[in-house]
């Protein structure tokens, strides 16, 4: 890990975005004094992900405001209030009122960080027509189309705009190797037919822009772009990004391969391999559709578990309504950004057992420290002063400890109440081994059981249907559905079984799930190995399809038939012979990724440190709830 | 921080929006902060030189200077805090976005002040304990000297000559020591007092400073909180408006007026008869 940190040019999502935010907060060195930050909905999330209130305050950013919802409602109230108060100050304010709409903050300078959309530029134009601030420093989070730039340039009557720049921070770096666009409802987009393409145009644009920005922020030009053949959206995205790179000089970083337009066939890739040296990046565009199983499984590592059971929304966890939780812990932050929460950073990929132990140690440390500084131990003035000095540190530590203890307590309670140990063992069994008759028997008993919760019954039913879509005896799946209904699953939940088969059944998805693309010998080998070695942990035997893909790609063994290469002139080739091995892989999974995949990628990176580094990006990060919600949209044909 | 204001003022000439009064307070706080920084540095070097000297003619002079500097810094802290409170009260009065800006300015400056004051107090404490150690060390030293002197005294007494002279010398040494001890005592108590005062300021600032790592330090949470506040504020105002317009007090007034009219009528009728 330390070796990875030491190389300065390490692919790291968090530090790339932080660099941009640091420059942003100082107006790129050209904006001093009191500042206002104007954001839109998605840049707010991006900023919150990597920075904190106290950090931006220390840089004289004293107001953060949304450009799309200016505080109109308060304007009138302020004026009434001022006038009724009378006095010199308010008289001056109301004088200024005639001049400008919001005079109180008119002396401040605005730093705008927005996505380059028509709406945002429209709002900016409106803002510039009646400027509330003395200067405008505008940063867009992606490539600005020329016509929007024109529009902006033509609509600055008072010449308040000081600079316009592009800062490519258009994604949330959740972990250093996990990027998300926080863009929901992409599942219907990936599964819809091409006729409804218009309907999802905005979503598609968002994904394309996000992927562009990932490449630009990481400052890499991919030497090769490959995609998953079974997915139409993945193909389209890969082709479009290839086209962007070919036509726009901005993607051509100096150390990259140089000309993207020239070269035929996979020449581009080979050029990069020969000249690029250590920058041989593979961009792999995948689709969630290939692996509908992973989002349905119970999770046992910290970050994944919190997301599955409590919901982790841009590093925020809501604990409201949890029994025995104090008021200041109703909403807590679990962030991987450096300097936030060292414990979470160290243990986000630890499993539940290790985690319990780690939290116990944390608690013990804290107790030892707090005992040293107990109030009863204070005998002299010196003691008291020392206590006062240590007090803030102690208090922040106490917050960290109580936060993790509260989360852990709630996780443990949920595991107990929902008998998740039992459910998860069966889930893993369903995902990893082939035994139709036994699985059906066990499934039926689980569906009739009282202790298994209804959402878990739904997930089990779907896992069975996915596994034995073709192998189940006729009537087995309808019987399962009937049992689900009996077990209390609502009708639209039961309908999801058909929906998931339609979305990602064996006809639609690519090969690879349940190890179907392995040949007989390697399958036998695997089952032999697992029977000899035994399974180390029943709850984490499942390995997502993604890992097979990643390992294949890293070894250069990813077949061109399933993951063809984008050619620079457009079109695709399944001939991947003689391609250089990639040193960096950026995976973008349209439709969303999961924390299980992120954990596995992180382990892969640690095991292959120095050889190859993988960064995982996705439209969003799913848990089973969000995945099923989006699946419902697919079912309803939206 | 100060240099940011020069172009700011220049812009405002053609922006024709004068910054509100509290901006001057903010500037004052910023200036005070840089003053405090400078003075603390000076003080630190003075402390070092004071600790370095044990006896000497400038000792008193030095201590007086340190004392003066210390009170100066403490006054500056108090001044900064006063300005900060003014920023808070005037922006709160203005309401809306300005109050948010004010609260944030307060927070940011309070954070700076707090770290400064904790540094300052640490320096003071170190100096205090050093002086104390020196003093107690000095006491031990002087007691030891006393012992020797007493022995000397004995030998002198035995000798018989120089008796009076020896005693006078001893008395003057004792007087010197006593004076020294007293001066250091007052010095220490003064420093303790300044620490106490700073402690009070520290406590008041602590209310303003955000706990890092908590949800309160999230940018998006704060923005949502502002929206929530505005919403509840608007609701309250609407409620107030409604209750103001509501007919009940109006009805009461009309009813009373009506009664007065009737009573007047009765009065008039009664007087006619």
Automatic annotation (TrEMBL), chain A:
SUPFAM superfamilies according to UniProt: Sec1/munc18-like (SM) proteins
Top-level lineage group: Eukaryota
Matches recorded under Gene3D superfamilies: 1.25.40.60, 3.40.50.1910, 3.40.50.2060, Syntaxin Binding Protein 1, Chain A, domain 2 (3.90.830.10)
Entries under Pfam families matching the protein: Sec1
Family to which this protein belongs: Belongs to the STXBP/unc-18/SEC1 family.
Protein name: Sec1-like protein
From TrEMBL, chain B:
Record's keyword annotation contains Coiled coil: yes
UniProt-listed SMART domains: t_SNARE (SM00397)
Polar residues composition-biased segments: 1-14
Topology term for the membrane: Single-pass type IV membrane protein
Alphabetical UniProt keywords: Coiled coil, Golgi apparatus, Membrane, Protein transport, Transmembrane, Transmembrane helix, Transport
Keyword Iron found: no
InterPro entries, sorted: SNARE, Syntaxin, Syntaxin/epimorphin_CS, T_SNARE_dom
Localization annotation: Golgi apparatus membrane
PROSITE patterns linked to this entry: SYNTAXIN (PS00914), T_SNARE (PS50192)
CDD domains noted in UniProt: SNARE_syntaxin16 (cd15845)
Transmembrane annotation, as ranges: 252-269
GO biological process: protein transport
CC per GO annotation: Golgi membrane
Region annotation (Disordered) ranges: 1-20
Ranges where the T-SNARE coiled-coil homology domain occurs: 178-240
Protein name (record): t-SNARE coiled-coil homology domain-containing protein
Species: Stephanodiscus triporus
